[in-house]
Amino acid sequence: MKILVLNGSPRLDGNTKTALNTIVAGINKNCTNSLVEIYDVTEHKLSGCINCDGCKSNHGNCVLPDESADVINKIYNADTIIFGSPVYWWGVSAQLKMVIDKMYSKSEQFQEQKKKIGLVTVGADELKGPQYRIISEQMECICEYLGWELVFSHPISAYEKTDVLNNSDELRKLGELWKKIS
């Protein structure tokens, strides 16, 4: 099973990356037949979709000169995708949103696939804050449209850079999320 982990956080040593690394460690320990790749979205040159529809006549590849074709092809080739993002203004990071928007380029091809999707959102607000629900509902809509299955949506309340790293209960929960995708 190919698993792609999309890290949408510009903090490569922050709470979102810690959460995703913990999930990956659980997968690597318990799912020996899995090939896992972490893709740090913020380390790649991406641009927003401009709705030109050039991708529809270009075999599902964006015509803009960026690295989006690479990540979209990784999504296409994965069996499971885990999206991870900090919460910015009640949504995912702009960097991860660019990837999600560029998924339009292969939307017809994606609808022919069955994928499992995981979502991790890390915000400073309490878990009862609406942003976690808003982001999860958006991902549910995307999955419904594509015919994919959202197997987990895991919100985390963390503010300081090492809050997740210092929370053994949270680390335990993250380390067990592999069960939802296996």
Characterization of this structure:
By secondary structure, this protein is α/β, with parallel strands linked by helices. 37% of the residues lie in helices and 20% in strands. Strands 2-1-3-4-5 form a 5-stranded parallel beta sheet, sandwiched between helices. Strand 1, helix 1 and strand 2 form a beta-alpha-beta unit. The longest helix has 17 residues, at 130-146.
Task: Report the major sheet.
Answer: 5 strands, parallel
Shape: globular
- In whole angstroms, the N-to-C terminal distance is 9 Å
Specify Rg, calculated over alpha carbons: 16 Å
Pattern of helices and strands: EHEHEHHEHEHH
Contiguous low-pLDDT stretches (5 residues minimum) are none
Please state the average pLDDT score.
Answer: 96
Write the layout of secondary structure elements.
Layout: E1 2-7, H1 15-30, E2 35-40, H2 68-77, E3 80-86, H3 94-102, H4 107-110, E4 116-123, H5 130-146, E5 149-157, H6 168-175, H7 178-181
Parallel strand pairs: 1-2, 1-3, 3-4, 4-5
Question: In a nutshell, what does this entry contain?
Answer:
The chain has 182 residues and is α/β, with parallel strands linked by helices. The protein is built from seven helices and five strands, in the order βαβαβααβαβαα.
